Structures are given as structure tokens and as C-alpha cells.
Amino acid sequence: MNIFEKKEVAQEYDSYYTTEQGEEIDALEKQAIQDLINPIIPGKLLEIGCGTGHWTSFFSQLGFQITATDISEAMLQQIRAKSIPNVKLFNADVLQLPFPDNHFDQVAVITALEFCGDIPQAISEIKRVLKPDGWLIAGCLNADSTLGKIKNQDPVYKHGDFMTQSILYKQLSSIGKPTITESVYLSSNLKLLDQRNSQPTIAGVFMAAVVQKQKQCTSQ
Fold it and tell me: Which value, in Å, is the radius of gyration of the alpha carbons in the chain?
């Protein structure tokens, strides 16, 4: 069972972002994604693992036409209550997406790949439904970060398959040439650092990435 299918996890998911540090981290993560997607013209976007709609609202405000999916009905119950505009909701598994090939202009998957159970299969399905020249927008949790090193102590994070930046790059390279940046630097006691330069050896918790799907080569 996916940990996010538990009703209590779904109900508590948004509460972290109401804390002072949660709000600061949320702003940093969204800025990291915003910086990468500025050149992308909002289109028909598939959001995978939409959860309670935290990122769905962000993409809606930017003008994307969103098909939001999650495998957890408990999560979808939370997002339905928010009435986010420009969104259609589906209960769907990223490992077997119910959409045609080459259907979406963009696909977004924010801190969801780690919990899907089969990252290569998820990437394959994303590539299938993404149009040629379309963009994948991803946010992933870093195995090399402070959080990544202690994730097994957390009742939710221990279920995730965190990736290093090099592994994420390799996974996304089946789609195209990725651009990846890191954000959210935490100290050993999980306090947010003011700036990366104060602790240059610490990896960012949040990896923001974009990759454009390469057109298939055709024989002459």
C-alpha cells in the first residue's frame, strides 16, 4: 500500500506548510521550479501525484490547463475540497497512465517519483504520454542531503526511494538532456540554512529539474 493512501497522512500533509519553516521551504522549492520553467509556455499539463493540490494550485496560477492525477483517493478527497480552477482530477497510477501517447504539452511530478515503486517504469510512462518537444517538470528529494541520510527515521520518508542528483540525471536522460538545480539546504538538526555558501559541502534537499522530450529520429 502506498503510504499516501492512508487517510491520516493525507489529512496532515498540508499542515507542515503552515509552519514557519514549512512556509520558507515551500517558497524555496517553488522558486527553484519557477526559475527553470520561465521559458516554458503553459499548455496542457499532466500532474502526477497531485496529492492535496499544493502544487496543483501553483501550476494553475501560472496558467497551465491541468489534468491532475493521484493513486490515493484519500489525497484526491483533499484536493476536491479546494476547487482549484483549470483542473480535471483522475485516480490514476503513474505506472499505467490511462492517457494516449504524445498527449500532453507538459508533465509535472513533484516529490512523487520517489514513492511510485518503479521509477524507470514511471519515467517510461511519462515519456510515452508527453508530446515530442514537450517538457517534464520534476521535483525530487535528494538522497545525498541531510534529510536523505536520515529518511529511514521518518514514518513517511522511509517509504521513498530517494535519488542522488547523478541518478536522477541518468533516469531523466531517457527523455532528453536534463537541467537540475538544488535548493533547500538543511543543517544536521534539520534547520534551514540562510545560504548554501555557509555550508558548501551540504547537498540540497530539493532537486528541481526540467527535461525536454527529444523528437524521435527517423530513417532517411
Answer: 17
